[in-house]
Design goal:
heterodimer; A: alpha+beta; Umud Fragment, subunit A; 2 domains; three-stranded antiparallel β-sheet; 4 helices; 9 strands; about 25% strand; elongated; B: mainly alpha; two-stranded antiparallel sheet; 7 helices; 4 strands
Chain lengths: ~160, ~210
């Protein structure tokens, strides 16, 4: 929906044109996902039974064929998208990497409803420590950033550090 | 009242006799009807007013005067209408295609962040076009080199620390673990950068008809 005031028309005409224009946009359905991987990142799928340790053990050129198949490198000009609700999301785990040309835009904040924090923070999927993780656990994929060689990862934001191996 | 009337009639009659006029003949004062009586002569009620007869207006057109140019007037009207329609639709289209767009979202795939229904989100379509990917490179090899260069700089700053550490930006922190302080600063910093890890984006479905891979 788009409501824009154009000074050459009355508000009724502008609303009619806006609704007609937005109805044409509804024809192409959009999907909202979180960017998990960028070009050069390596993706380890959750159900591939392939751990980070085995990756760096077999990450050498002598790595086995099965290990290489389980590892996915995001190609140039593509992104890896996943929904926050990993157990109930149809995302890149189903249809692979997505060309960046299909990205319509970014969602910086929410308009409605006016509850809690409307700003969509840039970060990983929200951890559900307070409510507890679901029984089935996290079913998303693990992302290794571009250039990563198996060091201990330090996730840092202004004023505080949180270390994770 | 009756006495006054009869006395007034007898007074008029005596005056007529004095002037030599036959009293049976009615004088003009009784024969002439007042304007008020003429106006309500045919009306059944005193408040009803008879309208004057409608007269057809005379045709003022003459062969000397030019006829009204209706075709040009209509052409001008529809021309202005089409122009304004195109202007309004074009303005709305450009703003929603290259600026921003409001849309509602449905579905449980983004559940902790967005509710399954009834949420209206703001889609920023301008800054992804301006900045592209964060860092300005969309090639994997360039991003690997950039990340390793950044890692070397970080290790030089952290001299004496454990070198087996990989420094990552705040985009790898869960979105709900950020402090409330400084959220507007982070917001403006994210707006002025390209698409990075952790951004929520709106995409067209990659398996829809007409998509070219």
């Amino acid at each position: 929906m788009c409501f824009v005031a154009v000074p050459v028309f009355s508000y009724r005409t502008v609303i009619c044109i806006g609704i007609a224009h937005s109805s044409t946009h509804f024809i192409s359905i959009y999907y909202s996902k979180r960017v998990v991987g960028l070009p050069g990142d390596e993706i380890i799928l959750k159900n591939s039974h392939y751990s980070i340790a085995s990756h760096f053990k077999h990450g050498s050129p002598k790595a086995s064929r099965a290990a290489r198949k389980s590892l996915l490198r995001v190609p140039d000009g593509h992104v890896w998208l996943e929904g926050d609700n990993s157990a109930n999301s149809l995302d890149s785990r189903s249809y692979g990497t997505v060309p960046a040309a299909l990205i319509v835009g970014r969602v910086p904040f929410r308009i409605w409803p006016l509850r809690e924090n409307a700003i969509m923070e840039r970060g990983l999927r929200p951890s559900n420590k307070r409510l507890g993780e679901p029984k089935w656990g996290f079913q998303g994929s693990t992302v290794l950033p571009a250039g990563y060689r198996g060091e201990r990862i330090i996730k840092q934001y202004s004023g505080a550090n949180c270390k994770e191996s | 009242m009756i006495r006054l009337c009869s006395s007034s009639k007898s007074y008029v009659r005596s005056c007529q006799l004095a002037r030599g006029v036959h009293p049976t003949t009615t004088t003009s004062i009784f024969r002439t009807k007042s304007h008020h009586n003429q106006r309500y002569e045919n009306s059944s009620h005193i408040n009803t007013i008879t309208k004057p007869p409608m007269t057809r207006p005379q045709d003022t057109s003459s062969p000397d005067l030019p006829e009204p140019q209706t075709f040009q007037d209509d052409f001008y009207f529809y021309g202005v209408l089409i122009y304004r329609l195109a202007l309004a639709y074009g303005g709305i289209y450009c703003l929603s295609e290259y600026g921003f767009q409001l849309t509602n979202c449905n579905g449980p795939s983004m559940l902790p962040t967005m509710k399954p229904c009834g949420e209206i989100i703001f889609i920023d379509r301008l800054t992804p076009r301006l900045y592209g990917f964060d860092g300005g490179c969309s090639r994997g090899t360039d991003r690997v080199q950039l990340a390793r260069h950044r890692q070397q700089q970080y290790q030089q700053q952290q001299s004496g620390e454990d070198e087996e550490e990989w420094h990552e930006t705040e985009s790898f922190v869960p979105a709900n673990e950020f402090p409330q302080q400084g959220k507007w600063g982070r917001f403006w910093r994210n707006i002025r950068s390209g698409i990075s890890h952790g951004d929520i984006v709106v995409v067209e479905h990659p398996q829809r008809e007409g998509t070219v891979w």
